[in-house]
Amino acid sequence: MPFRLLHTADWHLGRVFFNVSLLDDQAHVLEQLVDLARDCRADALVIAGDVYDRAVPPADAVRLLNETLTRLALDLDLAVVIIAGNHDSAERLGFGSALMEERRCYVRGPLAGGLAPVEISGRDGAARLFPLPYAEPALVRELLGATDLTSHDAALAALITHLGALPNDLPNIAVGHCFVGGGAVCESERPLSVGGAGQVAAERFAGFDYVALGHLHRPQAFRDADGQERVQYSGSLLKYSFSEATHAKSVSLVELGDGPPQVTRIALSPRRDLRIVEGHLADLLAGPPPGESAQDYLLLRLLDTGALLDPMGRLRTVYPNALHLERPALAQAGDGRTPSREQLARGDEALFADFFTEVTGQAPSDAQRDVLHAVLADLARQEREAAPPTFGSDPAGSDQAGSGAGSEPA
């Protein structure tokens, strides 16, 4: 009978996005996860790293993790395997791990804590899980006493070799946090290293029946030489950047028995979606079309090219959770060249017309030129009125100033 595993990763509890805490949104999807674990009768749940968003998580994030693990491990009597990711503090995450194992909650923080596998017996089957928490190559060198491990790929290969031959009496599952070469990345993922030294080859996991990975936020799989997709990322629980706006977030239900693993991605429903909305200001102020929520987290791209008065303030009266505003027409039009000396000699109106065309991609209209002319004329008048009297002029401003012998025109 199959062993049923829920594969999750990249919870990033405590994430703040554009100065907005996502903790309530995370609690919303974790409620669904607990219900799913109960309804699908899972035998174990995996969190493949980046449990928290930063090494020192806020107290509310710790509280949310505590409540969620209590419901999973105590209320549902579900085995849970957790590893540290590159966002986590391995030592902090691993606090109390020996005590937690009494309730089948296996937390592997520091790599030095050991690489012993975890055997879990479920309702209808059993499996052996090998937790491989995130570790820099330097830590692997220290642990194994190897001096030639300079890349993440070499370090992973050494760790898997250190595990020894895999027994074949139970399905063997690796749980890791790494960047498999060729994977699709997102803006919200913190690079593991400069250049390609942070990538590992999917072939390093040959021999495992399933590989539950974290780090990349998009659900994806890698096909091996047998044509099977044993190496998989479950993806993050929520969208954590606008580069993920089109992603469908999910958790993976994995069934392991005879034959290749059967993986089903089960969608999660966010409290608020994260979307990119594009249009002119007047159209957006009319409200969202049917089927779209005005409460979502939004990046708004305005197509208007003219001046706008407080566009974000006005848009937030309709979309209260608008997070960011872009004006692509202003950012992309023109070639950005500096005006030449000949252009500068043409006068203020011609120079501003060139600037307007450079920024907006089109020449000013007659009405806009009239406004510019009136503004420049008013500035010139103010400058004349503020200028001090010239030498030889009449303090009273008489038109006879400077008419005496020896005077020169001002």
Q: Any overview of this molecule?
A:
By secondary structure, the chain is an alpha/beta fold. It has three domains: 3-267, Purple Acid Phosphatase, chain A, domain 2; 274-332; 341-386, no CATH class. The protein has twelve helices and 19 strands. The chain has helices spanning 23-39, 59-75, 90-93, 97-100, 137-144, 152-163, 281-285, 311-315, 328-332, 341-344, 348-360, 366-386; strands at residues 3-8, 16-17, 20-21, 44-48, 79-83, 105-108, 118-121, 126-132, 172-177, 179-180, 199-200, 210-214, 220-222, 231-233, 250-256, 262-267, 274-279, 297-302, 322-326. It has a six-stranded mixed sheet. Strands 7-8-9-12-14-13 form a six-stranded mixed sheet, with no helix packed on it. It starts with a strand and ends in a 24-residue tail after the last helix.
